[in-house]
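A note from the maintainers: we've had questions about how concatenated examples are separated. There is no special marker in the raw files; a new sequence line simply starts the next protein. For clarity in this README we add a label.
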Amino acid sequence: MTQLSNYMTTPLIAILRGVTNEEVVEVTGALIEEGFTMIEVPLNSPNAVESIRRIVEAYGDKALIGAGTVLTVEQAEAVAAVGGKLIVSPNMNPAVIKRTKELDMISAPGVATPTELFAAIEAGADAAKAFPADAIPPSTIKAWTSVAPKGYPILAVGGIHAGNMADYLSAGAVGFGIGSNLYKPGKTVAEVRAVAKEMIQTISAL
């Protein structure tokens, strides 16, 4: 069974929104070399499932690889079919969570309220994605962790950078999804690597 905890030694998910099939393997390789262990290709990226297939083939034994912006059961099934193991959504859809778990994948749905958080837990999600984090302050995360099952993983995603990680960690978040601050179309592999290195150094020092 795929366990999220196996990949949380570096609690950062790289979100490669907009990545192309041609660059995805090289970008992912640089991220893994710098210490990232979780890679997400949002499904609104060009030919996203093909990108996932390519990086699973290249690095599936080195990292937890999967999709973001997963909105339907059918999309989760398409990711499973190419070997993806991680399903991240911007919303909390119990049907997607249920199917994700049936397929032995990690489920991390988006939540923005305590009601959504507890619905995600009840549906069987492995972790909750506090999204968008720049609209969910650390004080809110602290309140959620005080009432959620002890140790339940909450990841902060959206607007996360090296300067605000400490505040979210001290509030009880256990990890982060890093999107445009790490990768966006047009960035070179060297630029992505430099930011990745900074973020790994930051999280390692906290």
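[label: protein 2]
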Amino acid sequence: MMDSELETLARRVGEALAARGWQLASAESCTGGWIAEAVTAIGGSSAWFDRGFVTYSNAAKMDMLGVSAHTLATHGAVSEATVGEMAEGALARSLADVAVAVSGVAGPSGGSPAKPVGMVCIGWAAKTAPTRCLTVHFAGDRAAVRRQTVVRALDGILQLAAREP
């Protein structure tokens, strides 16, 4: 069951996308499909949500989204370079006009000094705008990091929709 804040945010995303006639695709690692779940919990989302890719492994990122092995080897899965390629790959492999991608260290293990637990990279790609990426550091346990990632990813879609004609 989705909480009211996520439901309200997902509904606003749907309204913004529908108003522009846009379709959305998601490419998710650390959230494991939660973005897709949040948007498809909204009735009528088939009008504005095309598809979601859950690409948890590096192999899936390469096979399903076209992320380059060089990018993964050089920057790692949790990097702006990788989420940028994930978002662009989701856009290219869907009917979407806009795509969001996430990869991060949700914890409780897996962190390092360079990439601590709570570090998440988010990328947004659109047919009408340059790809934009952001690195954020969220506090809390695994569920809290993942939920905050979904909120920030959806909020970024709203911002993108507000900027574009």
